[in-house]
Amino acid sequence: MSEQFDVVVIGAGPAGYHAAIRAAQLGLKTACIDAALGKDGKPALGGTCLRVGCIPSKALLDSSRQWHNLQHLFGEHGISAKDAKIDVKTMIGRKDKIVKQFTGGIAQLFKANKVTPYYGFATLHKDRLVKVRQHEGGEVELRGKHVVLAAGSDSIELPFARFDGKHIVDNVGALDFTEVPKRLGVIGAGVIGLELGSVWKRLGAEVTILEALPDFLAAADADVAKAALREFRKQGLDIRLGAKVSKAEVRKGEVHLSYDDGKQEQSLVVDKLLVAVGRRAATKGLLAEDSGVKLNQRGQIEVDRHCRTGVEGVWAIGDCVRGPMLAHKGFEEGIAVAELIAGLPGHVNLDTIPWVIYTEPEIAWVGKSEKQLKDEGIPYKTGSFPFAAVGRAVAMAEPAGFVKVIAHAETDRILGMHLVGANVSELVHEGVLAMEFHGSAEDLARICHAHPTLSEAIHDAAMAVDKRAIHKAN
What we know:
Blueprint: E1 3-10, H1 14-25, E2 30-34, H2 47-52, H3 54-72, H4 88-113, E3 116-125, E4 129-134, E5 139-149, E6 153-155, E7 168-169, H5 171-174, E8 183-187, H6 191-202, E9 206-211, H7 222-234, E10 238-241, E11 244-251, E12 254-260, E13 265-270, E14 272-275, E15 279-281, E16 314-316, H8 327-341, E17 355-357, E18 362-367, H9 370-376, E19 380-386, H10 391-395, E20 402-408, E21 414-421, H11 424-436, H12 441-445, H13 456-464
Parallel strand pairs: 1-2, 1-5, 2-3, 5-16, 7-14, 8-9, 8-14, 9-10
Antiparallel strand pairs: 3-4, 4-5, 6-15, 11-12, 12-13, 17-18, 18-21, 19-20, 20-21
Binding site for FAD: 58, 319, 325-328
Domain Pyridine nucleotide-disulphide oxidoreductase dimerisation: 353-461
EC number: 1.8.1.4
């Protein structure tokens, strides 16, 4: 006999737990199923983001930044320290403590909102029947008036570089090194490769990043990518573009790589190899043959713009559907779907989802890049402003980077904002907000920004769109 629910959510990552909590808030009897276990072998809610992604990587990025600043920046402030040491195990322990705090926090939120958790692997069958293979053995059956699929994503594994958890790792393994590798190789110069490469470079590793594409950060604005690449190379990250890896072999505790740089075959030997070539929807075993839910060629669940799968009462959200694989995109889809189920309006604007890379300097953008606008034949104008001319950035000794505002050439409506520099993960939301309200560059230019702040760069960049920035030659 299956237990009946108004809503059954499969997956307790960012998309799933938001959907479950919001559904429960709206008075719907809700269950949420998750298969993940923590390092202690106990259930750990929160998905990749909380357990082995967003949160732990930011903890290590902050720890490594403190160490880097102690060695390279504090002297400018007249601060000196002798015989400074770093204990990597303590750093990893701090990260694990933060993860446990947040995964436990989700469990408490489920309890407070009366969401019923189930732990195990779930499969959707026809008529919204969900069978759960529990960790402790046995199977339970749940049936929902609505089922929300929020299975998340997994790291893509290369056939010639299989994860062994010791020498060749994904993001999970790279978050748990117990000591600084002397030589770290990274395949892929995307978000994960750059962030985790930066962590271990700051701590003393020689880091070589091999990127198959000829362009660096092709998804970002070209000017931002160019500025970021320059800064990363200054920091000592060895980023090799157009490097197509064909072989990775572990020999005597070392990883021997072969790659083509477009001219000839090259080799590289490292102690650890991080494979960070992207992620794919985690749909394996999720759908029974009779579920009726369809997958596209990329293995993602097919949905319409409101996250409906086409099967009555079955929805899908987060990394397992179209759109950017970003936690905050999953947040919004989870809430929107819960509200649609409850008969309320619900919508997510994929055109205003902000992107952030938490390197040093940070990289962030929202909306269209110049290349995208050129390709689409949309007339535009731009304004940019460097952080080197912003008093707060110089006082912080972080003058690298700039802000670029892109507006429609005729209507002045903001089409994109692209940033590289200190704390731009926070600043990008001025662009998100302005675009959501269909704001213009002039709107931003006429809004008073406190002085001295980093956000003044946005103000001056908006003014520069019409060549009236005060603090730079137009």
